[in-house]
Amino acid sequence: MKLRKPSELDGRLPRPILPDALLLCSTPIPMLIFRILVVGSVLSAFLASAQTLADQLGFPAGTKLIIVHADDLGETHAVNAAAMKALESGTINSASLMVPCPWFPEMADYAKSHPEADLGLHLTLTSERVYYRWGPVASIDRVPSLVDQNAYFHHDWEAHQQINAKEVETELRAQVERALAMGVHPTHLDSHQYRLIMSGKDLFDAFLRVAHDYHLPIFVTRDWFAANPYLQSSLGPGDIVLDHTVTIEPQVPPQKWAEFYVNALKNLQPGVTEFVIHPGFDDEELRAATRERATWGAAWRQRDYDFFTSQQFRDLLAQQNIKTITWRELARLWQTKMAAPAPR
Amino acid sequence: MKLRKPSELDGRLPRPILPDALLLCSTPIPMLIFRILVVGSVLSAFLASAQTLADQLGFPAGTKLIIVHADDLGETHAVNAAAMKALESGTINSASLMVPCPWFPEMADYAKSHPEADLGLHLTLTSERVYYRWGPVASIDRVPSLVDQNAYFHHDWEAHQQINAKEVETELRAQVERALAMGVHPTHLDSHQYRLIMSGKDLFDAFLRVAHDYHLPIFVTRDWFAANPYLQSSLGPGDIVLDHTVTIEPQVPPQKWAEFYVNALKNLQPGVTEFVIHPGFDDEELRAATRERATWGAAWRQRDYDFFTSQQFRDLLAQQNIKTITWRELARLWQTKMAAPAPR
Question: Helix A298-308 and helix A257-266: axis angle, to 10°?
Fold first, then answer.
């Protein structure tokens, strides 16, 4: 199976359309031309299916909906604590949990006492830090291609590595089963570091089979179809597909953090957009766990927490007439739509 | 195999002789009689082998040596950070690492950059906290009796549980092998929650076989022989046996913490005594990880850190003419003694 190396160590990928456009001014010319081409091709794809997910769900034309989604819950306590506080403040309205991580039990406990919380599973197949690590939920003997010589998940997936899609499926099912056994009833599934999105058709199909078996929507957006055509060909008419995603990237300097999100919100396209954010508290634990590099580190996560729990963010939503929606709400509306008789 | 339930949830057991004696004043009468009997029987055992380990190693008669030993490194960052700081301040002179825990890689990194540090392995078979958990290093399929339904190590070992000694040995070897592969060259082995000491001959023998195969001393003291006779019968003439151990217990109120240790040091018996302590920083991470109960919790560990890095502790060592010794030094002296021709 062919694996493509993530552009950045963390493997956070598919670039959102909107931030790309915002970053054009600081981009060298050849890259600029390339980006315009990519944006152009994706825009053409949009034109081919003009209806947004919001349109399909019966919202008035032009409706802008966002999921404000915190990733990586369960990884450290500092991430859990920030996410729980942000969820309760009501601006972050969705999140997903890393089942193999040591702090997952804290989030399982939270999920049991907050059954209304919109919590999915952040299916995890890598252990990308250096001083703090974790491994599979499935027995290691059953998923040998997923672990390094010390039985942790690989730090990264190198180009030469053979990641076995059957083992991936075994591990994904083990993660869902542990979550269910521990009282978590996920509203959706997504993929840590987008590994299941960007690593070829075999892994995406394994992801999709697991999602279908548990009747759960997966986080996938039309933004990614151009770069990964197998996404569109594997998805069926019963699958929810978001319109866009926005996530901040290492090119954005700390002092431009709020500006990036403000621009993203001011330029938001109609439809359903997931803001993939990484709140966390910049404390001893998180600084130690992420100290080998600044990307998605403690200060980064504190900046995300600060912006999305700010009055500025709330005010912008009101000013721009942006509504929030959860995965649970999306799934219910989708179910109603699918159950309705087809228009004549 | 018969398992005895720990007297306290944490399973920290064999009571040290010295603190028992110190605590007699607050003990109800029947328990007092029982304790006097136990102390008496252990004292008789001492009389039967009057030579202390210090005597056997050639120290002058009456020499008092202590290992100031920090447990549970690798469990959380707050424990690692406190232990590393205390090791570098030079009063804590030995420690052991929990290989299955998520913060073990941080300690492996420290061990590689501090090859002189006296670091053993704190062999771990339980995951005793609630919100923060870990599981085996060996493949779960090979150690099914050691894990709960969610594939974590058991929270506790219940009386009805069948812990398979062969699986224990498999897991112990996996922990040693991971440590070696990650650059840790342990000076000794000990057992988290004394599980391998207090759970019967089969488990102790498995522990001993692993120690012998890797040519490592294990932490065992003559204090424990009376309550666990299989210890003495399994140990051979080549095994190092400490004279005493001191560890603080939940009966000691926080305000008496320093007093307990001061009394223990003032009443220290000749020979080699290991002070089993649990330093840690009372911060967000450790408070969250241990919040379901105070025993061996964040405040407890901060108190241990504070006493053993205090000037009061240093002064007491000088006043009482107590010397410190490490496991590495003990093993070297023992090796020299074993290599020497027997006296005619």
Answer: 40
